[in-house]
Each structure stands twice: as C-alpha cells, then as structure tokens.
Write a structure and sequence with these properties.
It is a single chain. The chain is an all-beta fold and 262 residues long. Helix content is 2%, strand content 51%. It contains one helix and 21 strands. The strands form six sheets. Strands 5, 7, 8, 11, 14 and 16 form a six-stranded antiparallel sheet that branches. Strands 6, 9, 10, 12, 13 and 15 form a six-stranded antiparallel sheet that branches. Strands 17-18-21 form a three-stranded antiparallel sheet, with no helix packed on it. It starts with 8 loop residues before the first strand and ends with a strand.
C-alpha cells in the first residue's frame, strides 16, 4: 500500500525494468483511483473534474455507452448522466472511492435523481470497486420514473469495520430513457436528531415591536419526536431571544413549519 498519496484522484505508476546491467525500458500502469479513504459525512455533486475522478465508471457490457458528467442548467450544477439509447441495454456502474464504515451505526445513502421515462437502478455496497465486488444490494428501483428531481434514500448497517465502496448499477433495457444523478450523500443516522433547516424573519428588529419568525424543522433521526423546544438565538453572542415548546409529533423524515414570535 502506498501511503504517500496526498489526495484522492486518478494516478498511474511508471514501471522501469532494472537488472544487473542497469535500467531497461519503461511502461505505465492503467489509471487507478488512489488516496486517503473517505469519511462520513460525505457529499458529492460532481462539481469539478477532480471530484468526479474519485468515482469509478464501469462499462460492464463494454458497449461504449456509459455514465458521463454533464452540466445541468436548471440546477446550475453538474450531474452524472446515462444517455438515451434505442438499441442497447445498460449494465453500467458508478462506484465511489473507499469509505470507512463501522458496525453499530446506521448509515443513510441518499441521492437526487431525475429521469425522462423509466429506468432500473440499484444502490449497492461492496468490498471491491468492481462489478463483481459490489455484491450487496441496498435498494433496488425497477421502472423508476422521476419527471421532476426527487431525493431517494436507503438506510443500512455493516457487520464488520473496514473499507467499503458504495455505488449505483444501471441495468435498464433498450429504449431506456435519460437518467441523471447528483447530490449523493452518506451520513450517519442518529436515533434522535431534529434540525432547523430554514429560518425566515425580520433581520433588523425595532425595540418594542414583536415579529414572527418562521422555522422549518426536519426530523433526521430514526424516532418520532413529540416533545422538543425551538430557540431563537442571537448569532453574535448566542443569547436565547425566544423559546417555543411543542408537543406536535414529527415523524422520521418529516418536515414541519413553526412560527415563533419575538
């Protein structure tokens, strides 16, 4: 193992033959994705070529039609896209660099997806970055149709600590439609995890005047939450300005809106 590699990207090695008579010819290896293992939380939107190069693309059926990085104008960002084809079936993989996972932790793999028609795709996990090594199916989506951008996710655990690879296998039939993937995230899921995901209100209040502040609260945990406290705080000195206590149930994955006056 070469532990001198500073960053995750594609590398190749130059191999020089050496004998008692001196150096001979040289050659280069294939490109390999090498570098430090990823850690959780992890997020990828393919924003640069360097980031995209940390993912391995496998054209398993060797038809020269596979995943490509494309700019998506309505997102103002990049996606990994598999193009439309009338005649060829897909068997194409998109595999991450190695990420360290631990038993006893629930992980959530999520991604944003859009299609123009239906596709078959699997979320997979494995110990080797190859079609054969990606042998644990986390979630299977058959005839997936997402005319608008949707976020899909799956939760999973591992039995043994170590390095794993996460990825996607597209196995659509001929006449499959376009499919785009981006905003891939891997995060640990806690039992209880409420998060304020947005806050809107008056930013220049006048003394003696009350203003409404609107919160959106997302339950990112595994348990439903029914007793909690929302606090409006001063960003500069972290003083608590107002408190709202609620017993309204928020289910896992659910977002609810609240209004707090101050």
């Amino acid at each position: 193992t070469d532990d001198r590699i500073p960053a995750v990207r594609k590398y190749r090695y130059k191999v020089i033959s050496v004998s008692s008579d001196g150096e001979g010819g040289d050659t280069f290896t294939d490109l390999y994705i090498l570098g430090p293992e990823l850690s959780v939380p992890y997020e990828c939107s393919f924003e640069t070529e360097e980031v995209t190069d940390t993912w391995k693309i496998i054209d398993h059926n060797e038809d020269n039609l596979t995943w490509e990085r494309e700019y998506y104008s309505t997102l103002l960002g990049y996606v990994m896209q598999y193009p439309f084809t009338l005649t060829q079936h897909a068997d194409d993989w998109l595999v991450s660099h190695a990420v360290v996972l631990e038993p006893g932790i629930t992980y959530k793999l999520s991604f944003d997806v859009q299609t123009v028609g239906d596709n078959n795709i699997r979320c997979v996990l494995g110990k080797e970055p190859s079609a054969e090594g990606m042998n644990r199916i986390l979630q299977e989506y058959e005839n997936l149709v997402c005319e608008e951008w949707e976020t899909r996710s799956v939760e999973f655990t591992v039995d043994d600590p170590g390095s794993y690879y996460m990825g996607f296998q597209l196995y659509s039939l001929p006449r499959n439609a376009l499919i785009d993937l981006t905003h891939i995230k891997l995060e640990a899921v806690m039992a209880n995890d409420l998060a304020a995901v947005s806050l809107n209100g008056h930013t220049d209040p006048v003394a003696g005047t009350s203003y409404p502040y609107r919160f959106a609260v997302l339950n990112k945990g595994q348990n439903a939450q029914s007793r909690y406290r929302l606090c409006l705080m001063n960003e500069l000195d972290k003083d608590t300005l107002a408190i709202l206590e609620s017993e309204e149930t928020i289910l896992p994955g659910e977002t609810k809106d609240f209004v707090l006056s101050w």
